[in-house]
Write a structure and sequence with these properties.
Helix content is 4%, strand content 50%. The chain has two domains: 2-90, no CATH class; 99-419, Porin (Beta Barrel), CATH 2.40.160. It is globular, with a radius of gyration of 29 Å. The two termini are 13 Å apart. With 420 residues, it is mainly beta. The strands form four sheets. Strands 7-9-10-11-12-13-14-15-16-19-20-21-22-23-24-25 form a 16-stranded antiparallel beta barrel. Strands 1-2-3 form a three-stranded antiparallel beta sheet. It has a three-stranded antiparallel beta sheet with strand order 4-5-6, with no helix packed on it. It is found in: Cell outer membrane. Residues 84-390 form the Porin domain. Residues 1-32 are annotated as: Disordered. Keywords: Cell outer membrane, Ion transport, Membrane, Porin, Signal, Transmembrane, Transmembrane beta strand, Transport.
């Protein structure tokens, strides 16, 4: 939401005995209005008119405001317009400069049953985040004219179980950046989502859900990138490109924490395809220098939405190599279906193959159903089964502890979320 004020040229009519205007202009304040912008809509509200003194009482002028009680201003022989009026008028900017400021958030929680929750025992628990990560944030956008605009975002994750930050130690774990956009695209600087996340998320049939392939496809350390510069192009003939570069900024060690990413996407009618290349180097942590180690990752994915029915199918493959993580190949597929009413369904299968015994060959099966209770409130049911063998320990809920090596896991979560 944003506000700005504008002043009309004509003063309000005088009330009471007329007085000569002061040198330099009339004593009366101009009419002032307040314009409020919210989600693309604008409303102009007139502010109460301030009038000249009506009476004099013991040399204390009394001012009268149409919408307020009479207020005395003592020790003022020549009353001036209220400072607030002048301030509001001064804040009035050029007519082309429109700004928006949005406070937003998500609250999501549910009850979860999980087998082998600690590796051996089952558990019932209240669980934060089932479909959308619980969060609160503020973002802004200012029109700079000529097709250019400035933007920023500050976003924090919230754990509804105890009200704490989802990740301690961060004021804005889920993003803190500023940038500028123009006809060709936008450049942002700060802590932000990786290109790998941006160009993979909506090719996963479960999208943001905690029961999804995101914990498999995107290493948690690659979700967000600190000290990063990102460019997201506009879409030209169905193509768009995204690139990201980051470094830890350690003097004499430029490779430490370096991240380089390039992603591209093509969309035509109901078909979309995405390609992402990611390379990241280890950081210096606790005096241990892992800058020589790296993670190389490539992803190719596609989705197709049918014109005749609300069904989208998904498929993709990812290959990860390097020293930071065990090598693996992941293949996935699934679908989303949205009925004409309030119900939606999604399902996905994610198969991992790795020569490393601790990773092994697990398969993750996910099914999810949603029911819209209103435009902003949704109830859901998530079901998941992780089939493990050997020493593999794939989880159902992406942030839960891993089960006992070789033990399969079943999970079910019934919950709701509200978006504001």
């Amino acid at each position: 939401m944003s506000t700005h004020c504008c002043a009309a040229s004509s003063p309000p009519p005088r009330v009471g005995r007329p007085r000569a205007p002061r040198r330099g202009g009339p004593r009366d304040s101009p009419r002032v209005s307040l314009t409020v912008h919210l989600d693309g809509f604008a409303a102009t509200l007139p502010l109460p008119t301030l009038r000249m003194p009506l009476v004099k009482n013991n040399d204390h002028p009394v001012w009268r405001n149409d919408a307020m009680k009479t207020t005395r201003f003592r020790n003022a022989r020549r009353p001036r317009a209220l400072a607030a009026t002048a301030t509001l008028a001064a804040l009035s900017g050029p007519t082309h400069a429109q700004s928006t400021l949005t406070l937003y958030g998500v609250t999501d929680a549910g009850v979860q049953y999980l087998s082998h929750a600690d590796g051996r025992h089952d558990a019932w628990r209240l669980q934060n985040y089932g479909i959308l990560p619980s969060q609160i944030g503020v973002k802004g956008d200012e029109d700079l004219g000529g097709g250019w605009h400035a933007l920023f975002k500050l976003e924090q994750g919230v754990n509804l179980n105890d009200g704490a930050a989802s990740t301690p130690g961060y004021a804005f774990f889920r993003g803190a950046y500023v940038g500028v956009g123009g006809p060709a695209g936008a450049v942002t600087l700060g802590r932000q989502f990786s290109t790998l996340f941006d160009k993979t998320l909506f090719y996963d049939p479960l999208w943001y859900a905690s029961y999804s392939g995101q914990g498999v496809l995107v290493p948690l350390s690659a979700n967000f990138v600190d000290h990063s510069i990102k460019f997201q192009s506009a879409t030209f003939a169905g193509f768009d490109v995204e690139a990201l570069a980051a470094t830890a900024g350690i003097a004499g060690n430029a490779r430490a924490g370096r991240v380089l990413e390039l992603g591209g996407q093509f969309t035509s009618n109901g078909l979309s395809a995405s390609v992402v290349l990611h390379r990241s180097h280890g950081a210096v942590d606790g005096g241990v220098d892992r800058a020589a180690q790296r993670r190389d990752l490539g992803t190719v994915a596609a989705r197709y939405t049918f014109a005749s029915l609300p069904l989208t199918v998904y498929a993709g493959v990812e290959r990860l190599t390097g020293d930071l993580d065990p090598a693996r190949t992941i293949v996935w597929g699934g679908a989303r279906y949205q009925t004409s009413g309030r119900f939606g369904f999604a399902g996905g299968i994610y198969r991992t193959d790795s020569p490393t015994p601790q990773i092994g060959h697990p398969t993750l099966f996910i099914a999810s159903a949603t029911c819209s209770l209103s435009k902003r409130t949704v109830a859901y049911l998530n079901l998941g089964y992780a089939k493990n063998s050997g020493r593999s320990s794939q989880t159902v809920y992406e942030y839960d502890p891993t089960p006992l090596a070789g033990a399969s896991q079943f999970g079910a979560m019934l919950g709701m979320y509200h978006v504001f």
